[in-house]
Structure to design on (569 residues):
């Protein structure tokens, strides 16, 4: 077996949630988002403070509140911006509540934290609604579009080797990103892109498409995330040792309700990126016009459309995925699966990837319990038939929103029989407990144990105030250090932050 | 690591004839009943004023 040199694929997901304030007058989505997060921070985190510390100071609610001093410049630091004891970041971004999961060491663990994020939003929503006057309600959706041309993201992040030429990444991830939506898409009724040219015949023959996001991409490669969105985003901000690492910031994905899809999305992308790190990639299968191909694939629920490649060939999206899968199988044999978290999760991802491609080839409807877009299609077709509706009926558009509704009493995705790969117990634990295998463990445990002595935290450092000048910064530049194995005993033993810093040699 | 069989590609759908959902047969009847139950439940939880709900659902772009 060749030795894998790929960087361990540490992963995380950041989701911007849709928010609706139902009231008589006008509502402000920024204020509504702040209400949601404040309700959680004040309703749940302060209870933890009073639980943990005898010397309670109700005025100092700063535990967990932070200004992130090393994050992207567009971050609005005056808005609520909390770090949670599970290592996540919970904040207002633009006009949405956003939750970034803690760093996770494999795809399955990240699915648990993605579900914990939903649970946190549900608890926030319930706490906020208890504070609102009768007749008003805040409603949260985990989706990516309002159906009127406005989109918001569900971004993935993967740790990459700094030495890998970016051109290689672009070449080999592009065909994968254009086609992975056939098993990653959350599905959507309607089209939101103004078509400037007549679409190819396979386009828009029906009002339903595979992806929520495909309509909103206009460029192949670029730095933007809000305008002229690119398929491959070039943000170079590793939140880790910049000499060793890149962070692959993926903006193409949909927010999935299906756990299986979130798992496949993270697992297959981790695998392909590990292969790119190790330069173990299929011949480039580059679409001639990637942006058009992205929309073509999204609109082709028959999965039969041919994507034109730069080398003159024409391939179906699923054939391109088969090529990646075959190469990934070979990669697993020659390099092992350590880079994606080991054999258990790696082989499971490979098997599920194969199973889902097989299902898509033979009988897509057989995947209605695994893929959001298939579950939706089955539901909407049944509903339209029962009530004699056309595809442009607002009732169907309402279903398409309500599928993503996080209110347990309204959520349709919870009712369509989606397969679970997590348990309620582990999701509930992940709401407050960090993953044990990454630096999020150190962050979360410190917040839980020494919260009053932490003045700031971000992805790669924490700042402590132990009562003696100056403030002490603890760098966390290695995403896999600070795990339970490294610092579990130390954190158990330390009485306070001063003790911790002394023993860390800081 | 054990040698693994090469991924076998399932031929495209044109050459296969899987039973489509909604076809005849016991499995299909069961699936139909399941979908009917689901649709009954959906009818109960669907927003009462769908048109209004959809109209008011306007988000700011994000990211």
């Amino acid at each position: 077996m060749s030795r894998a040199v790929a960087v361990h694929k540490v992963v995380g997901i950041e989701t911007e949630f849709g928010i609706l304030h139902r009231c008589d007058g006008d509502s402000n989505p920024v204020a509504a988002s702040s209400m949601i997060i404040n309700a959680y921070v004040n309703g749940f985190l302060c209870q933890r403070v009073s639980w943990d510390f005898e010397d309670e100071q109700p005025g100092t609610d700063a535990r967990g509140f932070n200004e992130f001093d090393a994050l992207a410049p567009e971050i609005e630091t005056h808005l609520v911006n909390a770090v949670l004891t599970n290592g996540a970041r919970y904040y207002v971004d633009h006009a949405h509540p956003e939750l970034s999961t803690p760093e996770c060491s494999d795809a399955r663990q990240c699915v648990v934290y993605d579900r914990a994020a939903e649970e946190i939003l549900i608890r926030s929503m319930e706490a906020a609604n208890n504070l609102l006057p009768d007749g008003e309600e805040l409603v949260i959706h985990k989706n990516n579009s309002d159906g009127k041309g406005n989109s918001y993201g569900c971004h993935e992040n993967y740790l990459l080797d700094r030495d890998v030429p970016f051109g290689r990444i672009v070449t080999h991830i592009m065909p994968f990103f254009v086609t992975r939506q056939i098993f990653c898409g959350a599905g959507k009724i309607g089209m939101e892109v103004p078509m400037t040219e007549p679409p190819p015949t396979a386009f828009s023959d029906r009002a339903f498409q595979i992806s929520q996001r495909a309509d909103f991409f206009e460029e192949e490669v670029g730095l933007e995330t809000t305008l002229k969105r690119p398929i491959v985003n070039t943000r170079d901000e590793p939140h880790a040792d910049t000499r060793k690492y890149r962070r692959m910031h993926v903006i193409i994905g949909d927010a999935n309700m299906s756990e299986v899809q979130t798992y496949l999305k993270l697992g297959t992308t981790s695998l392909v990126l590990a292969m790119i790190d190790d330069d173990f990639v299929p011949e480039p299968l580059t679409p001639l016009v990637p942006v058009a191909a992205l929309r073509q694939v999204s609109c082709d629920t028959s999965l039969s459309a041919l994507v034109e490649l730069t080398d003159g060939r024409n391939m179906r999206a699923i054939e391109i995925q088969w090529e990646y899968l075959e190469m990934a199988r070979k990669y697993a044999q020659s390099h092992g699966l350590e880079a994606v978290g080991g054999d258990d999760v790696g082989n499971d991802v490979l098997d599920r990837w194969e199973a889902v491609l097989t299902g898509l080839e033979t009988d897509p409807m057989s995947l209605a319990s695994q893929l959001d877009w298939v579950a939706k299609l089955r539901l909407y077709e049944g509903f339209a038939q029962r009530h004699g509706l056309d595809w442009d009926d607002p009732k169907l558009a309402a279903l398409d929103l309500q599928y993503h509704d996080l209110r347990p009493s309204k959520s349709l995705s919870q009712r369509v029989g989606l397969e679970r790969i997590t348990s309620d117990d582990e999701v509930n634990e992940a709401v407050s407990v960090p993953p044990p295998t990454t630096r999020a463990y150190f962050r979360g445990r410190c917040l839980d144990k020494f919260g009053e002595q932490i003045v700031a935290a971000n992805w790669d450092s924490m700042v402590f105030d132990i009562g003696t000048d100056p403030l002490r910064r603890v760098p966390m530049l290695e995403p896999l250090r600070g795990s339970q194995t490294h610092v579990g005993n130390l954190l158990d033993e330390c009485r306070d932050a001063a003790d911790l810093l002394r023993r860390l040699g800081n | 690591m054990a040698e693994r069989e090469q991924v076998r590609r399932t031929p495209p759908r044109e050459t296969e004839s899987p039973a489509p959902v909604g076809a005849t047969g016991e499995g299909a009847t069961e699936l139909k009943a399941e979908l009917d139950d689901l649709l009954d439940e959906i009818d109960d939880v669907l927003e009462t004023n769908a048109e209004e709900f959809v109209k008011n659902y306007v988000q700011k772009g994000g990211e």
Notes: Chain A has a mean pLDDT of 89. The radius of gyration of chain A is 23 Å. Chain A touches chain B through 59 residues (CB under 8 Å). The first strand of chain A starts at residue 11 and ends at 16.
